[in-house]
What does this fold into?
Amino acid sequence: MGQLNAKVYQQLLELERQPRPCLLTLPETVVAAKTVQRVDDRSASMPTVRVISAGGEERDIPLRLIEGIDIPA
It folds into this structure.
C-alpha cells in the first residue's frame, strides 16, 4: 500500500461492511459523508474512494489524501 495510511484503510474496510455516516479529514478540509465506497477502477492511477453526502452528491477522492476518518458512535 505504500504511503497509504493503514488505519484509514482499515476504517474504510469497516465502513464497507457496515455503512454509516462519518467525517473524512483531508488537507485543509473536513468532508461529511453518508456513505464511503472504494472505487474499483483498475485503470485509475491511485486507489480512490467515492464519498456520498446526505444530499446524494458524489465526490471521488484519492485515498492518499484522506488523513483520518472519524466514525461517530
Remarks:
- The helical segments are 6-17.
- The chain has a mean pLDDT of 86.
- The CA atoms of residues 45 and 62 lie 10 Å apart.
- Strands lie at 22-26, 29-33, 35-39, 48-52, 58-62, 68-70.
